Amino acid sequence: MKIRSRLSALVAIVTFTMIAATLTAPHAFAEEAMPAAASSLPAPAQESTPAAAPAAAPAADTVAVDNPYGLDALWNAGDFVAKGTLIILVLMSMGSWYIIITKLIDQMRIGRQAADAREKFWKAPSLQGGIGALASGSPFRFIAESGVKASEHHDGALLEQIDLNTWVTMSVQRTVEKVQSRLQDGLAFLATVGSTAPFVGLFGTVWGIYHALTAIGVAGQASIDKVAGPVGEALIMTAIGLAVAVPAVLGYNWLVRRNKAAMEDVRSFSADLHMVLLSGVMSTRQSAQVQSAKKIA
Predict the structure, then answer these.
(1) Predicted pLDDT of residue 250
(2) At what angle do helices 224-296 and 80-116 cross, to 10 degrees?
(3) pLDDT digits over 219-273, tens only?
(4) CA 260: distance to chain centroid?
(5) How is 146-165 classified by DSSP, letter by letter?
(6) How far apart are the C-alpha atoms of 36 and 209, rounded to whole Å?
(7) What pLDDT score does 96 carry?
(8) What distance in Å separates the CA atoms of residue 218 and residue 239, rounded to the nearest whole number?
(9) 3-state DSSP call for residue 227?
(10) Contacts for 50 with CB less than 8 Å, ≥ 6 apart
């Protein structure tokens, strides 16, 4: 009996336990399913809060920094020697460019005048008409007038001892030499500048190095801030000297070559004029001799 009663109690406990587990199981499933469902649902969109824009940095004040190693500093900090050297180089450069431009204009003008002489002078009916067709101030007109004057005024006790042919030749040749001398005006200045400007710049370089050594001796240390200024002056002087010399040399060689071409036209014109003058003189003498012979007869 005791055994049965114990078995009955054990069966009742097991039955009660199973019933309780059955009743509580849906709730547990729901509790476990809800987190899973909640995790499967899309997360609600978070409200996008506009990011605070970074505060605009205050505009930096532009501070003009003076260059302590420029041309302005070279002029302000330089002594009378450095300023005088710089002024000499500037004057050399200005003179060189002035001569190059003016001589180029003169050579171009002579080229146009040579074309006019070929077209107008030699087609004129007479020498006076050809001279009048040439522009005033033209070297070709100057040569023609000198040749005509020499052929017409061969008089005087001493000049009569010279043959007329020689006299006309000498007069035309002197006129051509004057034209050549006028064309060569200023070329000596270009040659002088081209040969001396580098040495003037070198003098400025030596003077700048002297200032650099003086600054090192006064400061007692060879720091870059003590040496950069004077050495910069030295390099600037060297560069300016080369910048003045190179255009002068190139301009000199270029103008000399163009002068040769211009003088070829002048010499050709003078040679042709010389032959025309001598032919006119000879024909005039022959006609005079014929007239005198007729009078005698």
Answers:
(1) 95
(2) 30
(3) 666 667 666 666 766 778 888 999 999 999 999 999 999 999 999 999 999 888 8
(4) 27
(5) HHHHHHH---STTGGGS-HH
(6) 88
(7) 95
(8) 28
(9) helix
(10) none
